[in-house]
Write a structure and sequence with these properties.
Order of helices and strands: HHEEEHEHEEEHHEHEHEHEEE
Oligomer: single chain
Radius of gyration: 25 Å
Number of strands: 13
Strand order of the largest sheet: 8-10-7-11-9-12-13
Helix content: 25-40%
Strand content: 15-25%
Distance between the termini: 64 Å
Number of helices: 9
């Protein structure tokens, strides 16, 4: 009995050590990587919030100890949006998931005719993520918001188990003040002109090349940027009907949204649509169509054709509008989205069904 008792005691101690090791692996503070303990509501989570999020996002309205914050807004003029961000790799030429979250959310407000003011931020962090990478991304997010005079005023963090996330997911909510100009799909008329503020497809190809999934290298930078200067210039021009930023699904998807909402055809000129040469070269090699590639710093505008040249000149005077172009028109005589090709023919631009690239956002 004594021998069996000692053997059983040894087995129990061994099991206890195993449990202790597992508990230590999941809860011990790691100076370089995220652990599950960073999301358990305790000291490590508080330190993570204080030392990274609060330090970079600090401002007069951010209170990391409050459940809600008061905002001084005129309730009759508020515009509200929400968005989620997942991209691989997390950092790419021209930006990262942090700056992308700010630009993506505020751009949705800007094209609706609003001035972005406040953001909330939810971060879903995968266990094992390098703290240094997380800090770079949050600092970039904070710097981008400050450059736009936008404040992050609330947020939350969650830590996902290893293998349950892509390193980092971000979810944002944006609040802005609506301007006096009323925009809407219902205001679009037959014959209206369609403009784009710059080359399409840069973001999609930049992220694709950053993955090096095809063994390709190229000098392509994401167009991720604030479109607020572009939308402010457009709002100064009478006859503006509608604006949209061509993100997932690209320019072709915006054209289909216009066609579905208005029941009028959309005719685009391939020759007029700006596409940077490196982007077109990658598309030619891999069989992609830049019309369907994501942009993160462009605006598509629909305007009275008599004011189209005025908008074009206003955009071309801005740093991000130098390659703006009038690319098409609304045409109720056609039931389709048509692309006039460079060879002089026409083809129907089908609505996007499958992902045009490996998923980028």
């Amino acid at each position: 009995r004594g021998h069996q008792g000692h053997q059983r005691q040894g087995e129990v101690l061994c099991q206890l050590r195993h449990w202790q090791d597992e508990l230590r692996r999941n809860t011990a503070m790691d100076d370089t990587h995220i652990s599950l303990a960073h999301g358990n509501g305790g000291r490590f989570m508080r330190e993570l919030i204080d030392e990274i999020f609060a330090r970079h996002l600090s401002g007069p309205l951010l209170d990391v100890q409050a459940d809600a914050v008061p905002l001084d807004l005129d309730s009759t003029r508020i515009m509200f949006t929400t968005d989620g961000f997942t991209v691989q790799p997390l950092e790419f030429p021209g930006g990262n998931i942090g700056s992308l979250a700010v630009h993506g959310t505020t751009n949705d407000l800007a094209v609706a005719g609003a001035t972005p003011k406040y953001l909330s931020l939810n971060a879903f962090i995968e266990e094992g993520m390098e703290v240094a990478t997380l800090e770079r991304i949050i600092k970039s997010l904070a710097d981008t918001a400050r450059a736009m005079d936008v404040q992050v005023v609330a947020g939350d963090t969650k830590v996902l188990r290893r293998g349950e996330g892509g390193g980092l997911y971000l979810a944002t909510t944006g609040v802005g003040l609506r301007g006096e100009t009323r925009l809407g799909l219902d205001r679009i008329e037959d014959g209206d002109a369609i403009l784009v503020s710059g080359p399409v497809g840069d973001h999609g190809i930049a992220v694709l090349l950053a993955r090096e999934a095809f063994g390709l290298q190229g000098d392509v930078t994401s167009d991720a940027a604030s479109v607020l200067p572009l939308t402010r210039a457009a709002l100064e021009i009478a006859g503006l009907r509608f604006m949209r930023d061509p993100t997932r699904g690209g320019l072709a998807t915006v054209a289909h949204e216009l066609q579905h909402a208005t029941a009028m055809g959309i005719t685009l000129s391939q020759q007029a649509i700006p596409v940077n040469d490196p982007v077109q070269s990658v598309c030619d090699m891999l069989g992609y169509d830049p019309m369907y590639l994501a942009c993160e710093g462009r605006v598509v505008a629909v305007i009275d054709p008599a004011r189209a040249e005025e908008l074009l000149q206003a955009w071309q005077q801005l740093p991000d509008g130098g390659q703006a172009a009038i690319i098409g028109r609304v045409d109720k005589a056609s039931p389709h989205v048509l692309l006039q090709t460079q060879l002089g023919g026409e083809r129907i631009l089908e609505e996007l069904e499958d992902d045009p690239l490996p998923r980028i956002c």
